[in-house]
Each structure stands twice: as C-alpha cells, then as structure tokens.
Amino acid sequence: MASLPSASHGLHSANEFCTLTFDYLVIGGGNAGLPIAARLSENPDVVVGVLEAGTVVEDPVIDVPRNVGAAIGRPEFDYCLSTEPQLTASQRNIALARGKMLGGSTGINYTVWDRASSAEYDTLGRLLDPADQHEWCWDSLLPYLTKVEDASSISEAGDTFPGFSRSEEDVFRSGVPFEKSVGMKGAVKTSYNSLWADVTQPYIQGWNTLGVPTNANPYGGNKSGVYNLRRAIDIEKGKRVHASVAYFKPASHRKNLKVLLGAQAARLIFDTSASHEDIRVTGVEFIVDGKTFVANARTEVILSAGTVQTPQILELSGIGDAKFLEAHNIECIVDLPSVGENVTEHVFIPTQYLAKEGTKTFDEFRNNPQFLAEQTALYEATGRGWLAAADANACFNSIETVSRINGNDTLKSAISALKEQIALETKNGTLSRVHQAQFDIQLELLEKKQTATLETFHMSKGIVAVEPGQSYLALFSGIQHPFSRGSIHTRFTDPLKPSIHDSLNPPILDPKLLSNNFDVALLLAGYRLMEKLVNTEPMKKIVQHQTLPPIILSEDEHVEAFIREAAQPGLHIMGSAIMASRELGGVVDARLKVYGTRNLRIVDASIIPVPLACHVQATIYAIAEKAADMIIADKSV
Ligand SMILES: Cc1cc2nc3c(=O)[nH]c(=O)nc-3n(C[C@H](O)[C@H](O)[C@H](O)COP(=O)(O)OP(=O)(O)OC[C@H]3O[C@@H](n4cnc5c(N)ncnc54)[C@H](O)[C@@H]3O)c2cc1C
Q: Sign of dihedral through CA atoms 37, 38, 39, 43?
C-alpha cells in the first residue's frame, strides 16, 4: 500500500515548504527531477526543493518485477491519460500511462534498461547552432550513460544469456568495448534475468535463423541485432529500482533536500521589474488539497514534469505560442511557438499466439495456483524465483535488414514516397523548418545500415482474450523514428478565463499517431517481419496458432486496417519542448535553458529533439546527470 515516510526523511508540509527560499526548485520528482535534486543537494550549502504531484509508493504492484504493467490504468499510480480521438488510428481515444508518484514513470514502466545507438545520440545537438552542437553527442553523453548505472551484478561480460548456449558465429560485438560502455557504480542497479520462459530461446534462435545476429553488447553504440536487455531490477532484493529508490532514498537524510508531495505545480512566477531582457523566475505557484501556495527560488527553477505536463506548466505561466496564449487571455511572457509541438511517440503493433502444450510462460501464474503459491513463498523468503523475473529480449533492425528478411522493396518505395512528400510540402511552405531539419536527420538515420529503426520484442504471456488453462506469447513490432508529429496543450475549464486550477486538468494530448503514411508502411513491414519470425523452425516448436489478429491477414490493406485499429503507443513520448536553436523553433538551448529566461531550465523527455530508438529511461537519467553538472558549472561561473 501507498505510505508516507515521516517528515524527517526529506518530506515536508506545504506551509513549512513555503517558509524556505530554495536555491534550486525542481518541478516533478520523476525520471529526471530526482537525479537533479540528488546531485545538486550533494553540496550542503545549497537548499533544494522538489514539488511532486504524486506520493511515495511502496507497493508490490510497483516493486515486484513480475507485476510490471499492473499499475497501468490504476489512478493511485497512473495519471490514466487518454489522447484526443486519433484520426489516423481509427478515431480511437488511446490510453497513455504516465507515473504519478515519487519516481514518476520509472515507477510504473516495464523496467527495460536500454540505450539508443551512437549515431542517434550524435544527432541530439544537430538542431542547435553549430557552435553548441558538440554539447550533445555520443561522446559527451556516454560518461553519463555509464554514470547512472550499476551493472555489477553481471557476472562477466559475455554472460548475457544465462541458461543456454549459442554458437559464437551468431554473435557480434561492435562499438565501444563492454568494459568502457557499462557502468558499475551508478545509482540505478540493473541486472539480467536469471530465469527465462520457454519463449526466450526460440525467439533468439528464430532471429538467428533469419540471419539477424545476436549482439553481445547493445550498450556499446550499435544496437542492431537480437539480445537480452538488462532491467532496472535490484537482483539481490528482487525489486524494481525506480528514481525514488535510486536517487531520493539515499539522499533523503540530507537537511538541504526538501520534497513536497501531493503538490501540483501550476505556474511560474516571474520578476517583471528587472531591466534585463531575459526574464527571471522567482518561484512557483502550486496547489495542495485545493489550496494555493507559493514556493520561492533564488537561483534556478528546473522543470522536470515530463513530456506531457511540462508544456502545460509553461503555457499556464505565459511561455508558449503568443497566439495560443492570447486566445486564452494569458499574458505572453516569452513567445516560443514550439511549446507543446513536435511531439513524437513510438507506435507498436501487437500479435498474439497460442503456445503449444508444455510451453512454460508467465501464464503459469494464471493457470496453476500451486505454482503461484510456491513462487510467492519463495519470493517472500528470498526475493528470487519467477516473481523476480520478466521478459527482456528485444530485436532492433535496420530498414535494410527488414527489407532483406521480408524479401521485398516496399520500404524502399515508401522512403521514396516519403522524400517526395517532404519535397512537396517544403516547396508549398506547409512543412515547418524544424520538421524539415528533423526529417533530414531521420532520413539520414533510416539509410544508415547500422541504425535500427524497428524494434520487435516478445511477451511470454497472453495479452488479450486469454482462455483458462492456456498459455500464450505475444510479439510487438514498433517504429522508433516516427515521422508523425503531434501536440500537447493546456486544456481550459473556461477557454477565455485561465485559472491555475487548469493545471489539474489533463492536457489536450494529440500525438497524431500514424498521421504520416511512412509510419504505417514501416509498421506493415514490422507485421510481416513478425510473420517471418513465427514461421522459423525454432518458433514453430512453441507456436500453436495465431490468435491476434484472429485470422491470417494476407492482403496488405487488411493489415493496414488492423494497424490503425490495434496499434498502441510505446509510452516513450518525447519532444514537447525541444532543444534546438531559437531561430529553428527550439524551446531550450544547449544548456537546457528556456529561451528568453535567465534561470529556468527544462530537463526531461520533452527536450529530446529527434525520436530515439530505445526505451528512454536510461537516456533521461543520463540527460539529468549531465544537466546537473551544467547547473553546477553555470553557478560557479
Ligand atoms: C507504462 C510505461 C512503461 C514504460 N516502459 C519503459 C521501459 O520498460 N523502459 C524504459 O526505458 N522506458 C519505459 N517507459 C518510458 C519511461 O519510463 C518514461 O518515458 C520516462 O520515465 C520519462 O517520463 P517523463 O519524462 O514523462 O517524466 P516522469 O518520469 O513521468 O516524471 C514526471 C514527474 O513529474 C510529476 N509531475 C507532473 N506534473 C506535475 C506538476 N504539475 N506538479 C508537480 N509534479 C508534477 C509526475 O508526477 C512525475 O513524478 C515506460 C513508460 C510507461 C508510462
């Protein structure tokens, strides 16, 4: 059950919080906010405050690895957001989970611990002015990607597949060597599974059969291939490691770190009297139990409320598109037309198969009460067993590999059509400069042999319409560099009368999933790729027949209809306040400062300028660690 530690552990009442003047005030105690607060408060001479809308959660639903996914849709853990009707996804209002707790979405995510490829990190700075681009690249981020993690539970470099052996020729190693690419002393304990469902081995061997090699170190800069991924699990305790466990708990005794829970940050307060052309933030207005309070910040405010809520706070504060703000009677403090725009989301298409009799999957928990009882007892006694395990195999493929396996050129034709569409829209003036620049980068990545752009992972359990006593497996294929662009903007109770209580409304979430036809073409190729995988000899040994979609779809137009009906967000939503030059439409600069402000930074997934092919939590932790160093360095200048 949810519980609150005592005030002596860094947690405070609203009244007490407001008597303090903070050097740094962080909004949002999630994936980015907590690492920043923890790093800044290492200096006992500064006072750091965190405003977090959620609470501290200690609950088996969150902590037990087997329960990943179980918190989704439960309002005590999840904001339970929903998109606007997605016009190009069968008009559906699609659920979009976001963690509401100290730890943010790291508390409810699937714990997969992953990185993008070096070529992608090298594009992070590309939308900035040339002089600033070096700040954000693989070389500058790798020290932080390794700093955040503790992979010391891995027994040896090659031991990524406990429980079965593979032939050496199926394995490749490239990029930065293992020992230089993996961190052993960071805050987030990560580990490999020690138990595997019967799906893992055929899945990996199936890919090998299709000519996709096993990648022995996907963390070294080249993530193509099939592999096991680490997860943010403390293998000694058998528990999830989220941002609160990794960063807040070890720092909670510090007298200079104050966290206020249940506090909904509503808007920023500015010093409008100063003559400096860039505006200064002096505090944050927030709501607790319906009452309004103000917290004061002396040096900086760091906005880490996540991709969904960060643009809402900016807009309610008067930072955003002047026309949008004017239309809602909000005084425009800084005109930044891109606030809430450029939103991207990975999109996955699921399939499901009945497993052959005797295939052991996680459905055993559903089908076998004795197994459940034994495993529960084992877990309670030791933190080990099947409750401490979950799937973590993924395969990332480039366009070239997908085309080779599918044995056709449909993706090459789709790329040509995409290029023509971009050229036409550029000529007509209907494509913004920032989208042109983003698309240039994405096209470059698509055509790079080593850059994976389609992820296919499995779940060793049924996901829909499961029959008692039966075991299933599911496959998901997902686009990693979507060309669709959406938006997130504030929803007003009365559109002409803004109120700080509008911060309690979920924003208007319109990621415009599948609005670009190329995304659909790639998902279609992903669907065909899953068909090829299930038809390999290793997979045929465990697959009885397909149950989702319920019939074999041989016509592409039927697959496309299924995609629009069944595609799901990857829950890696990014980019609502991108890092780019102001001229191009950026919201933050290379030091993550909001343009037009002197002391407001954004540090969370909203700043990511071009979608990355990865599960994003590790990258966000790394961005936060890097941002903390920047904040400290800028203070001492
Ligand atoms: C169900 C799910 C599964 C996922 N699986 C994986 C996975 O396996 N691996 C992986 O790498 N990534 C995964 N992700 C993605 C990843 O966890 C998130 O993208 C990432 O944690 C970043 O989220 P965020 O930037 O939205 O910030 P968050 O971590 O969500 O932090 C935002 C924080 O701000 C708080 N907040 C928001 N608004 C306010 C406000 N107005 N005032 C005060 N506080 C506020 C929130 O309560 C939250 O604590 C998953 C995400 C979800 C939701």
A: positive
Give the ipTM of the model, two decimals please. Answer: 0.99
Q: Is the CB of 608 under 6 A from ligand 1?
A: no
The model's pLDDT over 237-282, given as tens digits with 9 standing for 90+, comes to: 999 999 999 999 999 999 999 999 999 999 999 997 776 788 999 9
Amino acid at site 423: A
The tokens 């965190």 sit on which residue? 50
Q: Of 296, 242, 134, which is closest to residue 617 (Cα–Cα)?
A: 242
Is 9 a known active-site residue? no
CB-count burial class (<10 Å; 0-12, 13-18, 19+) for 465: exposed
pLDDT tens digits, one per residue of 546-580? 999 999 999 999 999 999 999 999 999 999 999 99
How far does residue 126's CA lie from ligand 1's centre (Å)? Answer: 25
The SS3 of residue 233 is: strand
What pairing do the DSSP bridges indicate for beta strands 233-234 and 239-240? Answer: antiparallel
Q: Name the strand (E) or helix (H) holding 528.
A: helix 517-534
Q: At what angle do helices 433-446 and 410-428 cross, to 10 degrees?
A: 160
Q: What is the pLDDT of residues 74-101, one digit of tens each?
A: 999 999 999 999 999 999 999 999 999 9
615 has catalytic annotation: yes
Cα(241) to centroid(ligand 1), Å: 14
Structure tokens at 416: 């040509």
